[in-house]
Amino acid sequence: MDRCPLLPVGAPPAARGRRAVSGPMLLDLFCGAGGAAMGYARAGFTVVGVDVKPQPRYPFAFVQADALEYIAAHGHEYDAIHASPPCQGYSRMRHLPWLSDREYPRLLEPVRALLRTADVPYVIENVEDAPMPNSVVLCGRMFGLPLYRHRRFESSLLLLQPEHERHEHVIFPGRRLNARYSANSAGVVGVYGHTSGVKIAHARAAMGIDWMVRDELTQAIPPAYTEFLGHQLMAAVRQTTTPAA
User: Which of 14, 78, 125, 182 has its CA 20 to 30 A from that of 194?
Assistant: First the structure.
């Protein structure tokens, strides 16, 4: 997969390296390896990712920077913003005995405040238990993926949500935490933690992601989710940028 070069911190949105700006600009905060970004690109956005850690497999233009600092300085320069702040502080897994004494960042509130200041349409993603009002929950089964993976999405827009079929297959046989795959699951998987029992090729196919390594997959958003949301976001952006007749 062709990759865009690393952009310097503070680079303007138009600094696209080899790729010309071909659609409205979307800022992808806490971008990881680019699962969400790919969906937004398929919906027509030109995407720039920001993460504090290097992301060598990120498929679009990338800025290594603190996400909160970057949005405060540059958020208003984009047409739309997606943010996936760390989820560990909101995950039900934090209640496990061996994790209960750990402290995790809880960044939803500051991220939301900065997004509102940027005054552009936005989407925030996190785990299902995160405190996110006016949100929708998406699952792989809504998009025909062999995947049970719930993620919550909050937006400045009123988001639509597909019908969610009932989960029929057992993904967690027995009592082992990471026993993610079962002969009774009919090929449906959950990609979490260390994805024990799931081959990397199977996990990639279930997520609709072919460029990530295992640890990146466990943190990623399937592109189908953000492609679905991206079309809704694009409609709002087009409405605000189209001159009145």
Answer: 125
Packing angle, helices 108-118 and 67-74, rounded to 10: 20
pTM of the prediction? 0.82
Cα separation, 210 vs 75, in Å, equals: 30
Strand partners, 124: 83, 154
Q: What is the DSSP string of 129-147?
A: TS--SSEEEE-GGGGT-SB
Kind and range of the H or E element at 68?
helix 67-74
Quote the DSSP letter at residue 225.
H
CA angle 103, 108, 111 (to 5 degrees): 120
Gyration radius of the chain's alpha carbons? 18
**pLDDT tens digit string along 134-156?**
899 999 999 999 888 899 999 99
